[in-house]
Amino acid sequence: MNNKIDKNKIEEAVRLFLEGIGEDVTREGLLDTPTRISSMCEELFAGIGQDASCHLTKTFSAPNNEMVIEKDITFYSVCEHHFLPFYGKVHIAYVPDGKVVGLSKLARTVEVYARRAQIQEQMTSQIADDIMEHLQPRGVMVYIEAEHMCMTMRGIKKPGATTVSFATRGEFQTSEELRKSFLEIIKG
Ligand SMILES: Nc1nc2c(ncn2[C@@H]2O[C@H](COP(=O)(O)OP(=O)(O)OP(=O)(O)O)[C@@H](O)[C@H]2O)c(=O)[nH]1
Ligand SMILES: [Zn+2]
Question: Where is the GTP cyclohydrolase I domain (predicted)?
Answer without folding.
Answer: 10-186
